[in-house]
Amino acid sequence: MRTADNYADSPRRAGHAHTSVRRRAADPAHPAAGSRESEIRLRVLEAASKLVDRLSYDEVTIDAVARASGVSKSTLYRHWPSRQILVLEAFTYKTNLLTHVEDTGDVRRDLHSYLVALTRCLDEGQTASTVSNLLAEAIRSTGFSRLYRQTLLRERRQGFLAILQQGQRRGQIRNDADLEVVVDAMYGAIYHRLVATGEDIDAPFLRQLNGFVMLGCATPAYLEPQKKFS
Amino acid sequence: MRTADNYADSPRRAGHAHTSVRRRAADPAHPAAGSRESEIRLRVLEAASKLVDRLSYDEVTIDAVARASGVSKSTLYRHWPSRQILVLEAFTYKTNLLTHVEDTGDVRRDLHSYLVALTRCLDEGQTASTVSNLLAEAIRSTGFSRLYRQTLLRERRQGFLAILQQGQRRGQIRNDADLEVVVDAMYGAIYHRLVATGEDIDAPFLRQLNGFVMLGCATPAYLEPQKKFS
C-alpha cells in the first residue's frame, strides 16, 4: 500500500506529544517522564517503536524488544502483560510524536497537515500491517479492545476533534455539525482503505477526502470565498 | 451494540438479490439457481446464514452447518475450503437478500433505506460480531482478504455506488464528487463504529451520517429547496 509521503508542509515534531490532551498519571498513551520507572518505559517504547517500523507485526516479540532496549524480559512483562499491548503502546507513542494539531488559522490546512502526518506514520516499512493487526486483535479480544480505545483510537480521534473544534471557534465549521460523526467518516475512510479495500491512501485521496469533509461540515462563509479561487 | 431497527420505511425483500450487479458464473456473491450443484449451494447458504443470526462467529462450524443443512461435511468442504469462507459467503448471501437499491427519485431517501437495511443486517443476534471477525480474518490472511473483497465488500460498495450514481443522473449528486471516496467515508464510518469505537449504529447516527454525506456531495440545486423545509 502506498501512502502520502511527498508533502513539504507536514511537520515532524519529534519530542512533542500533541498538546490538546490533558495528561493523566499512568496514562498509557502519554508515559510521564521523570521517575526511574518512567525512564524504563520510555526507553522501551522508543526501542519498540523503531522495531515496529522495521519488522512485521509478528516479528516484534518481547525477546526482540528486550534485545533492542537492553531491558530484561521479566521487567517488560511487569509493564506490559503481552507483546500485543507493548506494540499497541509503542505505536501510539510513536504516532503521538509524529502527529501534531496545528493552528494555522485555517481548518482545511490544519486537517490536511494532520491527515498527511497520520498517513505518513503508516508509510514506514511494515507499519500498515501492524496497525491492521492491532485492529484485528481488538476485534478478537474485549480486553485488548478496551486498551485500543484508550490509547491509539482516543489519541487520533482527539486530534481530529481538536482541529474541528478550533475551526468551530473560528466560525469555519458549522455549529450544528456532529463532529463525532465527521471523525467517524474521516478516520473510518482511512481505515476502510487500510484494512478492507487495500486502495492507496495517497495524496489525491487525502485531498478528495478533505474536500468532501469541508463541504460536509464547513460554514457557507468559509466555503464561499474558496470557491472563487478553485 | 444497538443498531437502527425502528424504521417503518425499510423494505425487507427476501428473495430479491439487489439488481444493480451483473451476475457472473460461479460468482460467490451470487450463487446461481438451477443445477443440482447450485441447489446444494443455496440450501447450505440458507442454513448457514440462519446459524450466523443465532450463533457466535466461532460456533458456526462446518459440523453445525452440516447438521443444519443435511449436507455432508465432505460435500461442504468440496464447495468451501474453510468454515471462514462459508460464513463469509453465507453472510454476503443474506445481506444481498435484505438490502436493496431503491429508486424513489430522491437520493437521500434511497441512501437512508440502504443504510437502515444494511445496519439491520448487523442487528440480529451476534451478527455484528461475525462481521467484525470476518474483517479480522481478512486482515490476518491475504487469501481470505481477496475473497472478502470479491464478495461482501464489493457487494456493499456497489450498492452505495449505484445509489449515488442514480443521484448523479438525476442531478442530485455533483458530477465532480469522487464517489469512491464518498463510499469510503460512509461505509468506513459504519465499520469504524462497528469494529473500533463500539458506538451505537442507531437511527440518530444514520441520520447525521446521511446529512453529512448529502452536504458533502449533493448539488446546490438539490440541497437548496431542502433547506426551506428543514
What does this structure look like?
- In chain A, helix 5 runs antiparallel to helix 7, helix 5 (about 105-120) packs antiparallel against helix 9 (about 205-215) and helix 8 (about 180-195) runs antiparallel to helix 9 (about 205-215).
- Chain A has helices spanning about 35-55, 60-70, 75-80, 85-100, 105-120, 125-140, 140-170, 180-195, 205-215, 220-230.
- Chain A is mainly α.
- The radius of gyration of chain A is 18 Å and the shape is elongated.
- Chain A folds into 2 domains: about 10-80, no CATH class; about 100-230, Tetracycline Repressor, domain 2 (Orthogonal Bundle), CATH 1.10.357.10.
- The first copy, chain A, is built from 10 helices and no strands.
- The longest helix of chain A is centred in the C-terminal third of the chain and has 28 residues, at about 140-170.
